[in-house]
Amino acid sequence: MTDYQVHTLSNGIRILYKHAASTITHCCFIVNAGSRDETERQTGLAHFIEHLLFKETERRNTNQILNRLELVGADLNAYTTKEYTCIHASLLNQHLERTIDLFEDILFHSTFPEDEQEKERGVILDEISSYLDQPEEAIQDDFEELLFKGHPLGNNILGTPETVARLNSEDINEFIAANYNTSEMVFAVSHLIGVTFAPRIKDPSSTQCESTFVT
């Protein structure tokens, strides 16, 4: 018998819930889109988008995004792999609704302003420089480049200075349209279930998550 529940919303998003007898909730939103889904000229794009998700939405500016959970003592972060992108948070149980609202906003309503693109481009170029200065970090990527030669899985997640320098709004919008499909998303949560949360997991006909994550 499994110790978790899975519910699929009408838009295809899967909710994975696991009971945790704790005052702390851990949750994440996983999108089945990583560096393996990039074209050769777009190397580094999935990671570039992950950075920009925290910059501006139709409702919030950068400070409002970052402070939304920080003000209640929660931790918000994200990472990109070759196979998926993950946004995750750890928070007190009572702030789960607040977190779901923020996840929905940054995933479906980010605006990717060009001035923020330029700022994050500089941040990522610094990341690449730092990475190149640490050969012990790069050896695994060197191996995968040989193993998956000619395939996106062989490319570095960060991209190269040349590819990152030319990424633009058109690339971002094209990648999101092709890969950020709700049927390729999972919201996973480890939570002490309560009366306000239980119906949203168990009732497929009328749930807050259903309305929250419809795009």
How would you describe what is shown here?
The chain is an alpha+beta fold and 215 residues long. It has a single domain, classed as Cytochrome Bc1 Complex, Chain A, domain 1, CATH 3.30.830.10. It is built from 9 helices and 6 strands, in the order E-E-E-H-H-E-E-H-H-H-H-H-E-H-H. The chain has a 6-stranded mixed β-sheet with strand order 1-2-6-3-5-4. Strand 1 and strand 2 (14-19) form a beta hairpin. The longest helix has 19 residues, at 114-132. It is globular, with a radius of gyration of 18 Å.
Short note summarizing the structure:
With 215 residues, this protein is α+β, with helices and mostly antiparallel strands.
Overall average pLDDT: 88
Strand order of the largest sheet: 1-2-6-3-5-4
Q: Helix-strand pattern, N to C?
A: EEEHHEEHHHHHEHH
Approximately what portion of the residues adopt beta-strand conformation? 15-25%
Q: Determine the fraction of residues in helical runs and give it as a percent range.
A: 40-55%
Q: How does the overall form come out from the CA principal axes?
A: globular
Low-confidence stretches: 194-209
**Overall CATH class:** Alpha Beta
Indicate how many domains the architecture comprises: 1
Radius of gyration: 18 Å
Structural class: alpha+beta
Number of helices: 9
Q: What is the CATH topology assignment?
A: Cytochrome Bc1 Complex, Chain A, domain 1
Major sheet details: 6 strands, mixed
- Beginning-to-end CA distance, first to last residue: 33 Å
Specify the CATH homologous superfamily. Answer: Metalloenzyme, LuxS/M16 peptidase-like
